[in-house]
Amino acid sequence: MCASRAGGLERVFRGTFIHSTPDAALQILEDALLGVDSVVGKIAFVGKGTELDALTQDFGFSPAEILHLGPHEFFMPGLVDTHIHAPQYSYAGTGLDMPLLEWLKTYTFPAESCFHDLDLARRVYTQVVRRTLKNGTTTACYFATIHTDASLLLCQITDVFGQRGLVGKVCMDRNDSLPRYSETSQESQAETCRFIEELLNKQYPLVKPVVTPRFALSCTGALLGQLGAIAKKNNLHIQSHISENPEEVKLVKELFPEAESYTDVYHRHNLLTDKTVMAHGCYLTDQELDLFHETGAALSHCPNSNISLRSGVLNVRNVLRHKVKLGLGTDVAGGYSSSMLDTMRRTLDVSKILGTLDPDYHSLTMEEVFRLATLGGSQALSMDQQIGNFEVGKDFDALRVNVKVPDGPVDLFQRDQPKVGDDWNIVEVFVAGRKVVPFSDPSNLAVQSHLSQ
Ligand SMILES: O=c1[nH]c(=O)c2nc[nH]c2[nH]1
Questions:
Q1: Given this model, what pLDDT does residue 115 score?
Q2: Gap from CA of 244 to ligand 1 centroid (Å)
Q3: Architecture (CATH level 2) of domain 79-381
Q4: Which ligand 1 atom sits closest to the C-alpha of 112?
Q5: Whose C-alpha lies nearest to ligand 1, atom 2?
Q6: Which SS3 state, helix, strand or coil, does residue 331 take?
Q7: Consecutive sets of 10 residues in the chain, 453 residues long: mean pLDDT of each?
């Protein structure tokens, strides 16, 4: 399990590591040794404690440098949130009293329309990035709003806090319910190009653009085609929504009568690629799932939102049977929690309910859900060559978790540690080998000065 030494070994950890592989939903590596290359932030080796002598020689570190995990601790891969609306964090946990299309008109569009205000954007985006990092989300696939400068600000904040992110400036040239929160197709196309160019010029190491048509109901065919072409030309990720709610599915059929299905609307505009992630997919047919598989497009399962907006129930087992790449998403604020741990619990609950209703239904296991939240998410975002588990050569995106609550070791409560995220004890968060800044520490002037500009 070793690679030869590349740069310099900054950290070697010894203890329990848990992760998933394509063959094993959950693998527990006890008394493991894992070395991180400090220069590139990648995993240099993974071995057993019994191989200590050989590893110290091969990688030139002293046993005294090893950081030993406590008996109640383990490392797991960072969580991958494949679908989250950053501006909607401003009203998360409220307004879940109506179905999707009314909810968009009543709460979402009015709230998002305010994000031309960069002070508001800075406040909310700082909160959502901090909170998701504390909850263990090392990679987030964000929707922003239609406002290019505020979307670029979200990229900056994600970079400053050290989170890995895909960020999308939302595109919508159709919005009868709130025309001021809409663009012309020319504006949407030009601003998407500006967003991509300005973001790529920043050369943030971990933050990249994702082409983001909101969903088929908010976009004309002309805009969808332009966005497909932009994504193709620049080899970019794509994200949108699909088949979330019955009324939405019906209206898409009426709006795009030439298309064979909702999936075909995106496919015929070159928006289904192996770098596409579509949220929800509750009502996709087997033929549509086959098209996802053929194109390599992925789904993001968002159970909290599906329940909260009473949108639908995704049959995850059927998605997996079609070999469609699948990750999990919090879908803030249709989902009221920004915690991927919450999303994991809801995924399990929904699957168990399906199993209760149909005794032949093979409910997901906790191990399978763990894989969806980590390796599955990395596959859904086509990042599984880089992140998702503890393979040599991948970036070290990891959570140090302490399971002893509430009277755990004192270092849980030290001010330079990330605080307890929701109700589990993530004591350290690493992204690309770097311990993420103690974001609640006001003495961290580098972060403060970046964000107060
Ligand atoms: O859950 C959702 N949240 C949204 O913001 C949205 N927009 C289109 N479709 C959507 N679904």
A1: 98
A2: 8
A3: Alpha-Beta Barrel (3.20)
A4: 5
A5: 334
A6: coil
A7: 50 96 97 95 97 95 94 94 98 97 98 98 97 96 99 98 98 97 98 98 98 98 98 98 98 98 98 99 98 99 98 98 98 97 95 97 96 98 98 98 62 44 74 77 48 49
CB 284 within 8 A of CB 292: yes
Residue 74, number of CB atoms within 10 A of its CB: 20
Other C-beta atoms lying within 10 Å of the C-beta of residue 410:
7
Task: Give the number of the atom of ligand 1 that is nearest the alpha carbon of residue 309.
Answer: 1
Among 277, 322, 274, 329, CA closest to 299: 277
For a pocket test of ligand 1, which of 244, 262, 265, 330 has the largest count of ligand atoms closer than 8 A to its C-beta?
Answer: 244
Q: What is the pLDDT of residue 403?
A: 77
3-state SS, residue 101:
helix
| Helix segments in 243-387, DSSP class H | 246-255, 262-267, 286-295, 303-308, 316-321, 340-357, 366-371, 377-380
Residue nearest to ligand 1 atom 7, measured at CA:
214
Cα distances (angstroms) measured from residue 218 to each of 26, 89, 242, 395, 417: 40, 21, 12, 37, 42
Ligand 1 test: best mutation among 212, 214, 245, 300, most atoms within 8 Å of CB?
Answer: 214
Structure tokens at 445: 């002037």
Which candidate, 192, 267, 239, 203, places its Cα nearest to that of 381? 239
Tokens of 285: 């047919």
Domain layout of the chain by residue ranges: 9-77+388-437, 79-381
pLDDT of the residue at 450? 54
Phi, psi for residue 62 in degrees, rounded to 5? -100, 145
> Ligand 1 mean position to 281 CA, how many Å?
12
Q: How many whole angstroms from 104 Cα to the centroid of ligand 1? A: 7
What per-residue confidence (pLDDT) applies to 402? 86
Domains 9-77+388-437 and 79-381 share a fold: no
How far, in whole angstroms, is CA 108 from its chain's centroid? 20
Give the pLDDT of residue 7.
Answer: 52
Assign residue 226 a region (left: φ > 0; alpha: ψ between -120 and 50; beta: otherwise): alpha
Q: Ligand 1 centre from 243 Cα, in Å?
A: 11
- Tell me which architecture the domain covering 9-77+388-437 has in CATH: Roll (2.30)
Question: What does the longest C-alpha to C-alpha distance in the chain come to?
Answer: 68
HEC assignment per residue over 74-96: EEEECEEEEEEECHHHHHCCCCC
Residue ranges around ligand 1 (CB below 6 Å): 85, 100, 104, 108, 214-215, 241, 244, 305, 331, 334
